[in-house]
UniProtKB/TrEMBL annotation:
This is Major facilitator superfamily (MFS) profile domain-containing protein. Its main location: membrane. Pfam families: Sugar_tr (PF00083). It comes from the Eukaryota. One of its GO terms (cellular component) is plasma membrane. The keyword Zinc does not apply. One of its GO terms (molecular function) is myo-inositol:proton symporter activity. Residues 29-546 form the Major facilitator superfamily (MFS) profile domain. The chain crosses the membrane at residues 29-54, 66-88, 100-117, 123-144, 156-178, 184-206, 277-299, 314-337, 344-367, 453-479, 491-512, 524-542. Belongs to the major facilitator superfamily. Sugar transporter (TC 2.A.1.1) family. Belongs to the major facilitator superfamily. Phosphate:H(+) symporter (TC 2.A.1.9) family.
Amino acid sequence: MEGGPVKPNKTEFTECWRTSLKTPYIMRLALSAGIGGLLFGYDTGVISGALLYIRDEYSTVEKHTWLQETIVSMAVAGAIVGAAFGGWINDKFGRKKSILLADILFFAGAVVMAAAVGPWMIILGRILVGLGVGMASMTAPLYISEASPARIRGALVSANGLLITGGQFLAYLINLAFTRAPGTWRWMLGAAGVPAVVQFVLMWSLPESPRWLYSQNKIEESREILAKIYPADEAEKELEALQSSIEAEKADAKSIGEGFLAKVQSAFSNKIVRRGLYAGIAVQVAQQFVGINTVMYYSPTIVQFAGFASNKTAIALSLITSGLNALGSIISMAFVDRYGRRKLMLISMISIITCLIALAGVFYGAAARAPSISNFESSHFGGNSTCPSYITASNPSSWNCMTCLKASSDCAFCANGANEYHPGACLAVNDGSKSACRADNRTWYTQGCPSNIGILAVLLLGLYIICYSPGMGTVPWIVNSEIYPLKYRGIGGGIAAVSNWISNLIVSQSFLSLTHALGSAGTFLLFAAISAVTGTAIFFLVPETKGLTFEEVEKMLEKGFKPSVCGNDPDPDKKLDGTV
């Protein structure tokens, strides 16, 4: 999912608290910029619940899975573009103006979606917020890191990561709060405009990053800001450090070439960087292809696949998965420096694959035990209400609820009034049939079927999140902050991040189509198989970087990484021999 390199420790958190009390201005800078992380999380998470009500309002969205996928994934497509142009805007106009522009995009997107008169307008709004997400994903942590004292930088940047998962959790709470409000999804999507306005006002009164100002030869302005962040005896030293760092950065830029394509060519022609990119891209692609964003973007829909037809119930149960994701981010901070990056990812991948196989089994069992279709029940609502595909079927007596739902997007299942697990009706999807079904005190199903084992799917989704978040959720970003030689960190991390967003887009744009073609069980089994492949790639390509300096990582990659079958951490005495 989403985030950045976060690597604080307990001492850093203690120092962060002490320093913030002494100099509140630092926390003001960090939290104001951190609202960008909150917006990032909110706008990626809110669509999961809003989509349920968008489907109810627009029959074209209900009937076409590709349209649902487009509404969800256009924010990811916008984020790819936003991240690509965000780097140039950051360097050209500064971090502060980049954040202000992201706020304008967030607000405009929220207003467009809230006022949408059709699906096309929702898609346009999603593209706008996606552009904001792409810019915020890289600018917010960059601003925080450049406006923070080095000794507490990791803790403050990690707070941005927590705000991302916190924003996703807030999105589910807002979704749940507006389930009974007139306009439902419009309020859910439009609410993102409020924190965007708050951040715009706060950032307007804050200064530019001192590092960017110095790089633009605005030395006095940079000195004034550093004087507010550091004690008097440290401010001048930090200014000297900035000078050395920026000069070294400019020298590195000359050595690897100007322009994006020249930098990419230089990176892949360097054996050490190339091996680092194999590892960095592998973990970023693996992070998405375990299917995490199917849960983040579609979890209420998945809960409905498990047999919970109520939108409100689906959103409420999905709130658990979002909360566990935020909790997992905290767990990661406690264990990643103790047990190492590689071990945590491999354990996470094995656990994820197990959960995906178990989910496939539960959904297969639910489909096999789905209530049958009764001709008597179907005709109860009148011949015109029965689904045409059922009427023309060659062997309708063999149909069950899942057969009905898969037959056509024009078919829905109306549960038996006495017992939802008894034979029910296969009806045409229209307002008349839906109203007649509900008026008869029956439950209307369009995504999944009644199942007495559906709660197992929800529990397994929660377990899946617990297995994902502390390992594959956060560690890939840490690996990418450590695996490249210093002068290639920017281009290496950028290439890996783009691979992450593209993988995210592929997964989010294809999930519902896959469930339609393969069924829920087949889709989760496919993710398990892909996870096994990407997990194998991690085993062979990704070395342990815990406790190693950049120089030691370089020497290890130069000699070539050789994985151990046991997967143990590197022996301190063998750090440089390339073995694990």
